[in-house]
Amino acid sequence: MKFYKFDNETGKKITIFNSNFVMSRIIQTEKGSNIGCMHLDPGGVIGYHQAVAPQLLLIMVGEGYVRGEKDEYFKVRAGDAVFWTKDEWHETKTDGGLTAIVIESEELDPSIYMTEIKLIKF
């Protein structure tokens, strides 16, 4: 399990074409990708299971806790990204609610665009 940031501070200011915004690049794939949005109500959980493909979870709203194969939880919040490799066991849960985008693809490598960070165990 690896952690990344995609918040405003990690992005790049874009001004071309009279633009004024920050772009945080996330991923690029050549092969097919599955992209979905998960909505967890307060007390929601994505149960402990193996990733069917490399998987990147992007926390958009709210906060929660993730774990990998060890029974150690890490707190995540909006702007955090979590990466699991194929077949890696993992779980996501929230007390107050959470919305996340999930990207699954055989060729995911978030380190191309994002810098890995360290989170403290909860």
From TrEMBL:
Q: Mind telling me which InterPro entries this protein's record contains?
A: Cupin_2, RmlC-like_jellyroll, RmlC_Cupin_sf
Q: What are the residue boundaries of the Cupin type-2 domain, all occurrences included?
A: 38-100
Q: Which Pfam families match?
A: Cupin_2 (PF07883)
Report which residue ranges the record marks as coiled coil. Answer: none
Gene3D superfamilies for this protein: Jelly Rolls
Q: Any idea what this protein is called?
A: Cupin type-2 domain-containing protein
Q: What is the lineage of its organism?
A: Bacteria, Bacillati, Bacillota, Bacilli, Bacillales
